[in-house]
Design brief:
The protein has 404 residues and is mostly helical. It contains 18 helices and seven strands. The strands form two sheets. Strands 4-6-7-3-5 form a five-stranded antiparallel sheet. The N terminus is likely disordered.
Length: 404
């Protein structure tokens, strides 16, 4: 996963969105090329403690998976408009399935909540988004997927560390390679753990002597997800966030990761729950505008960061939180989205970063990822051009930069 973040080791498949600084020489994309690369990898893995017998038994059977590389470059949380992502992530069907799972696993979920302090609806929301409540756990051979991504040039060091961890899992007898199946990015089981996260935080909740996140029984996987969030700062009884409404003439530049205020300060600025009532106080909060000032606004708390450790995309975290709220009986989001605007593709986001920097608003890189540095640069450009300084990377902003 990746998300990552508060814990040293990323967890979920979606978390794998951080580029390594250095690029390697291009590789010849084939199983033969992969096997050639594995010859050198074998020495590094052995030095890191993978038994020779495991290397001899597993590595010759690994194959290059071209679809894995393609999917690595097109992750939905970072390429799809947030409204489209939420439409799918928090669909009526998923809510219905989640409520049934809440009933079917009531005793287990209550025990997990009591043990780790993570609310059952959050655990279910992760299960729902990651594998649709265990119905789509993935059928990609994990070790071949990790070897393919390590052999690829983009994030070799990260995926090589995951491959080493995956081999250690096999060596420990936790799972046979043939059962070690998951997503394209090497995330495994009901709640899509990456191998390093499995080694450090997966739990044997049912007490059978194995941390089985792959089988039909979801107990170990759901408990492991709760243990992961707890280790990454989850505050029992706290909110992830809530949808808010903002007053007219609001200073949009107050949004984003770099502006953290006590709830009382947000209330003094006129921020209020979209559903009415007073703002709940769960500690310092951040105002997020995932689609700019024309979309929904969210005030988020410490537990937002804990979910981020699973996956760093705002769309993912908001989907987890909103799905959990719906499972508790809350209604849909009240604000609309600028659906007519569309969303920038990766090359367009990189172009936007280059144009901002050329215009004197340095984004500190043009990697196509809209993070705090790019949002800060956008806000400065927007202020200089008398536009709402919401930091949103919109197609209209790119068009304005192209035409300057």
């Amino acid at each position: 996963m990746l998300v990552a973040m508060l814990c040293a080791t990323p967890l979920s498949a979606q978390s794998l969105n951080v580029e390594e600084g250095a690029m390697h020489e291009p590789v010849i994309a084939s199983t033969a090329g992969l096997q050639g690369w594995l010859q050198d990898f074998r020495l590094r893995a052995r030095a890191l403690g993978v038994p020779q017998a495991t290397l001899d038994a597993v590595l010759p059977g690994l194959t290059y998976l071209p679809d894995v590389v393609e999917r690595d470059r097109n992750q939905a949380e970072f390429t799809r408009a947030i409204w489209d992502y939420l439409d799918r992530a928090v669909s009526d069907l998923r809510i219905e399935m989640g409520r049934k799972a809440l009933e079917d696993h009531a005793a287990l979920l209550a025990q997990i909540e009591a043990t780790y302090g993570v609310e059952k609806e959050i655990v279910l929301a992760i299960w729902g988004l990651e594998t649709s409540f265990g119905t789509h756990r993935g059928d990609v051979p994990t070790l071949s997927a990790l070897a393919t991504l390590a052999y690829d040039t983009r994030r070799r060091a990260f995926f090589e560390s995951q491959l080493v961890a995956g081999l250690k899992i096999v060596a420990a007898g936790e799972v046979a390679p043939a059962r070690m199946l998951g997503s394209w990015a090497g995330a495994m089981g009901h709640t899509q753990f990456m191998p390093t996260s499995y080694l450090s935080l997966a739990v044997d909740f049912d007490g059978d002597g194995r941390r089985d996140i792959w089988g039909d029984d979801p107990a170990d996987a759901l408990a492991s997800a709760a243990a992961y969030l707890a280790a990454n700062g989850w505050q029992a009884g706290g909110l992830w966030g809530l949808e808010v409404r903002l007053p007219e003439e609001f200073d949009w530049a107050q949004s984003g990761d770099r502006v953290v205020k006590p709830v009382a300060d947000w209330a003094a600025l006129g921020v209020a729950p979209a559903a009415g009532g007073a703002l709940p106080d769960h500690g310092p909060a951040v105002l997020r505008l995932p689609a700019g000032h024309r979309g929904a606004a969210f005030l988020t708390f410490t537990n937002f960061r804990a979910i981020e450790s699973y996956n760093p995309a705002d769309a993912y975290v908001i989907a987890i939180g909103h799905l959990a709220d719906r499972l508790r009986g809350a209604g849909p989001l009240l604000a609309g989205w600028p659906r007519e605007d569309g969303v920038l593709k990766g090359d367009e986001r990189a172009e936007l970063q280059r144009l901002l920097t050329e215009a004197g608003f340095d984004t500190l890189g043009a990697d196509g990822k809209i993070g705090p540095n790019t949002q800060a640069a956008i806000k400065l450009w927007q202020k200089a051009n008398a536009a709402p300084a919401d930091g949103y990377a919109s197609p209209a902003l790119l068009a304005a930069l192209r035409g300057r």
